[in-house]
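Predict structure. Chain length: 300.
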Amino acid sequence: MEMGTETKKTIALEFRNVSLSFDERKVLSDINLTLGRGEMIFVTGLSGSGKSVLLRLAMGLERPDSGQILIEGNDLGLLDEAELLNLRSTRMGMVFQEDSLFTGLTAYDNVAFRLDEHGVSQAETDEAVKEVLQFVGLEKDAEKLPEELSGGMRRRLEIARALIGWPPVMLFDEPASGLDPLTAIQVLDLIIRARDIYGISSLYVTKKLDEIPYLATHRAKRSSDGVVIEEATSRLTAPQTNVVVLERGQVVFTGSVAEFEASSLPAVTLLTNAENGTPMSDFVTSDPWDRTRLPAERIL
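Prediction complete.
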């Protein structure tokens, strides 16, 4: 079934009845998911529920046994390897959970790598790399190797490399995992800025539930002082977000952040019950727009 022009304009990524098994073990079953333009969908669930596999399918790094995956209307199953690589390189970016930097390349060359692969001119590459390094605050560290950077700086470099060329679709696999709280907030603010200033659509996988209300209630805007991160005052001014919960490879919940926090579904309460050890330090209220919870504004 072909997608109409208007549908292509409004849908960034879509899963249609997608299933996948590894060695006869069902990993994902009948997944249906639609990511709109500029929307952020939080994908959460217990370890082994299929979250990271979902991202690998979205990138075309795995092929489903059945169903369709479409990026901006392009059916990944109909693309040959060259077409898939081009789509992945020009329309998508991914920040992996594990460190995937090239250890022998400088920060500059890590970010430039994708453009160099596609034969982009040196002048265009230089402009794009400097822009994105400045965006993540690493413009003074361009000639450093990854081993010379702190953990937080390496994570910011991972984000810069994924954002080069400002792809319209971004996939995040626990990007703030293992970082101290202050550094994690810096990373989340970068993701908010990319989403809101550049209109990027994103799937955001996380087990840290405190990240969800933060990303759902804060937005970036340009001001005379630069880019400001501020807390939304209501659902009407909040960014477009949704939560998807996976359990044993199936979608068992889809809804807003408020609906997620209020849900009594066993699969959701298993995650939101503080006694199970799930990181949820900022979940102190059922209202994610309670302004007493978090700092209201920062200038970046």
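Summary: The chain has ten helices and 13 strands.
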